[in-house]
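Researcher: Sequence recovery benchmark, item below. Answer with residues only.
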């Protein structure tokens, strides 16, 4: 190999490293910087105009000051803990219901054709539309909120799981049956590992929906949680605290999504696994 070829190879490696650094670090930092700049510019307009005096709590400096206060005082944890508990419960029920149903729907053409229309209709109903029924059906507000989260989160899991099952190579299933594999063994050793990534992807989508539904669901009669804290900040005209709570909701949602994203990336299964 000539010196020129070695130099060209090293230059290509350095170029690839710079590109990777740009995409992995510089681009996200630039995105955050642009968002903060736009937020700061909007705050400057709010501060400069008497018409927007009521919205001065939403400016960058006041929001971050209030955010530091709710974190230091423990309010952030006190508001977040009940909400996280409700979301985990709702996602747990959605997973326990949605994954088996998705496996069944994906495994049977007859089953898919039978449930397709009712599932599509129910999927299009806003989970918050079930709120009056939830309040009547459950003895506690927490139970009603968990039901609403479950109703929102179950459909991404069902459809993602069913789609994953339908993508499994039929040759693998035929080979397993020819080798004497029972239904339970095929399900445990082939189907579930093959669709694990799809199930987790559905769970990730379900988390996004559940996290959005959570805040309006907590406008019900509960006296804890992020939704209650948002409502309380609005009623007391504490707009800096309200914007800090909105920021907290975004940070927590991002962290939860990132955790499931790591699990999705690890749940890879191939024919040679």
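Model:
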């Amino acid at each position: 190999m000539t010196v020129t070829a070695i130099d060209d190879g090293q230059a290509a490696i350095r170029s690839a490293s710079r590109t990777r650094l740009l995409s992995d670090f510089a681009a996200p930092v630039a995105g955050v910087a642009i968002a903060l700049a736009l937020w700061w510019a909007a705050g400057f307009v709010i501060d400069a105009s008497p018409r927007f005096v009521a919205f001065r709590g939403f400016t960058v400096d006041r929001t971050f000051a209030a955010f530091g206060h709710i974190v230091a005082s423990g309010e952030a944890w006190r508001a977040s803990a009940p909400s996280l508990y409700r979301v985990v419960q709702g996602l747990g029920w959605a997973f326990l219901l949605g994954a088996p149903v998705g496996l069944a729907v994906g495994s049977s053409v007859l089953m898919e054709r039978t449930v397709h229309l009712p599932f599509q209709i129910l999927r299009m109903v806003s989970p918050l539309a079930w709120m009056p029924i939830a309040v009547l059906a459950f003895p506690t507000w927490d139970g009603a909120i968990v039901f609403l989260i479950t109703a929102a989160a179950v459909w991404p899991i069902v459809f993602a799981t069913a789609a994953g099952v339908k993508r499994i190579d039929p040759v693998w299933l035929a080979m397993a049956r020819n080798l004497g594999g029972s239904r339970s063994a095929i399900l445990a050793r082939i189907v579930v590992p093959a669709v694990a990534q799809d199930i987790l992807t559905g769970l990730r989508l379900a988390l996004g929906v559940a996290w959005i539904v959570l805040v309006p669901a907590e406008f019900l009669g509960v006296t804890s949680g992020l939704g209650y804290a948002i409502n309380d900040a609005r009623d007391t005209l504490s707009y800096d605290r309200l914007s800090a709570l909105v920021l907290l909701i975004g940070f927590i949602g991002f962290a939860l999504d990132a955790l499931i994203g790591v699990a999705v990336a690890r749940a890879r299964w191939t024919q040679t696994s």
